[in-house]
Amino acid sequence: MSNSKTYNVALVGATGAVGTQILGLLEERNFPIGKLKCLSSARSAGATLTFKGETVTIEEATPESFEGVDIALFSAGGSVSKALANEAVKRGAVVIDNTSAYRMDPEVPLVVPEVNMDHAKEHKGIIANPNCSTIQMVVALKPLLDEYGLDRIVVSTYQAVSGAGSRAIDDLKNQTEAALAGKEVKGEILPVGSLPKKHPMAFNAIPQIDVFEDNGFTAEEMKMINETKKIFGDDQIKVAATCVRVPVLFGHSESVYIETKKPFEVEDVKELLTNFEGITVVDQPAEQAYPLATDAAGKKEVFVGRIRKDLSYSNGLHMWVVCDNLIKGAAWNAVQIAENLVAEK
Amino acid sequence: MSNSKTYNVALVGATGAVGTQILGLLEERNFPIGKLKCLSSARSAGATLTFKGETVTIEEATPESFEGVDIALFSAGGSVSKALANEAVKRGAVVIDNTSAYRMDPEVPLVVPEVNMDHAKEHKGIIANPNCSTIQMVVALKPLLDEYGLDRIVVSTYQAVSGAGSRAIDDLKNQTEAALAGKEVKGEILPVGSLPKKHPMAFNAIPQIDVFEDNGFTAEEMKMINETKKIFGDDQIKVAATCVRVPVLFGHSESVYIETKKPFEVEDVKELLTNFEGITVVDQPAEQAYPLATDAAGKKEVFVGRIRKDLSYSNGLHMWVVCDNLIKGAAWNAVQIAENLVAEK
């Protein structure tokens, strides 16, 4: 990375649901960009977009695209990252990869800045951004891990369709219109774009995100399980996940049950969460105040509420964790990593 | 109850979301009805509906309405049941109450026919129908309870708006139309009709069903906890619930995690569930087949899928349980109880 006070940034997948959010955040945060390269597949090359009032032409991503680039943000699918991330590294860039391509690679740190920014120091050119559903959960759990230790996690998710990309958002809207008009509802994308079977998403809950593995869990569930262990640096923590897509456009919600190693008081838990960077506690049951996906949409924080002690296990705690999956769940986490890298210079 | 081969039936709340389903089932099942009385508040009295091709005029429910009635099905809210159920009993009727009024009364059996029809024998005039979210879960768990014993249950629900009545269905549809048209979305009913604050339900997940109790759990969550213990006749079983409303019209889905007392093999679990009355197993991950609310709508069975062993606890099991909340979760369970009472005569 150069020692100048500005950084040449490449964004691969600039027109996607996450790429659009990354561009907006780089602008909003006034990230010290020297030159910005927006890269894509050959199909989208030549299109233009606006960044800080200037027109940027999208170029086809090739190995040579990364010449002179300091920070390369990848958000164009795992196969693109596998083909090009190392090409970027070879040319001196630090890659922040938002796909699943390198997350479980032992050579690649998997980073959520509020949780384990120290892991980023060990990078060999690539830093991975965790899966959206993992990021919001580990932020909410980190202060409790530090104070009480964590023995187990059981999570059930309520995930927005935006996690499956822009086309899934359109698909849900179109399906919902059809359902309201009494017409046949036919899914085109969900649950998994690359698989043959489609299920209706309008007015439904689909217990499949990503493909199934042999153990009966989906890849999304295994991401939550394995990424959590890696981020917390603890192979012994027991994690179980059920990942479900619901007819929500933006914002994943999670019903999180944990058991801590040491005893806690609920009031202390609320205080720890309230004081933790990146968390906003919304938890006034008497006023019907708790996190909602529609309130979290467009925001950077992780929202936590419904905080209550289990009735059978004194070390058991329930929480409801909500976050915009495209922002902190993806784009904002990546931009935060970039900001931290730059701040360390 | 008379010894004739037909039974005089009263239905209180005949025009509601559940009452309508009860009438449809009594007709479909050709229940041996002598005289059918459809009862309601003074407001709806005088309206008519059709049963087996005949016009039935709705009458105002009064204590005298139950003279000569053998079976009274109540589905008009807890306050109506509290005011009139004992009046019906006094006049010789057996009441099957679909409200929460008597569920936790130690004198009143709480019955799911596939699970504990034997409890109904102890009735003193009233038999309670459990809460919708409880019914589908205890059906799915009963064969496992019998074979392996149950130590704990952790459940997160994905509940349809029809559980909050016909007006909530209209509210979700209206809100969704507004949201798709880019207009402001304002909820009118949910999360709880009787509470002041309304939240948007369109494209959202609301972690509140019914009012909050002092322990931070909602009344809906406490129903699942307490009713499960009562139905299984086991105060020691540990139950934890998080109840969430999602933008689904018909059919509750549940992410259920259990720990059994004795070890199990997943294949045996699937066989036990497949062979259990009232359950249909849908569990072929390779074909993306699992229970879906849109498939369960209008059906009587409890659908179970995503059956898999936990990765940390060898006695831990995950399942996805789906059922039409208005049918087996309410109307069909009540009609089943009535059929069983009649069969025992």
From TrEMBL, chains A, B:
Record text on subunit structure and interactions: Homodimer.
BP-aspect Gene Ontology terms: 'de novo' L-methionine biosynthetic process; diaminopimelate biosynthetic process; isoleucine biosynthetic process; lysine biosynthetic process via diaminopimelate; threonine biosynthetic process
Record protein name field: Aspartate-semialdehyde dehydrogenase
Catalytic reaction equation(s): L-aspartate 4-semialdehyde + phosphate + NADP(+) = 4-phospho-L-aspartate + NADPH + H(+)
Binding site for NADP(+): 15-18, 43-44, 162-163, 325
Amino-acid positions noted as binding substrate in the UniProt annotation, renumbered to this chain: 159, 245
PROSITE patterns assigned: ASD
InterPro entries (UniProt xref): Asp-semialdehyde_DH_CS, Asp_semialdehyde_DH, Asp_semialdehyde_DH_beta, NAD(P)-bd_dom_sf, Semialdehyde_DH_NAD-bd, Semialdhyde_DH_dimer_dom
Record domain Semialdehyde dehydrogenase NAD-binding: where: 8-123
Organism: Ammoniphilus oxalaticus
Binding-site residues, phosphate: 103
Role, per record: Catalyzes the NADPH-dependent formation of L-aspartate-semialdehyde (L-ASA) by the reductive dephosphorylation of L-aspartyl-4-phosphate.
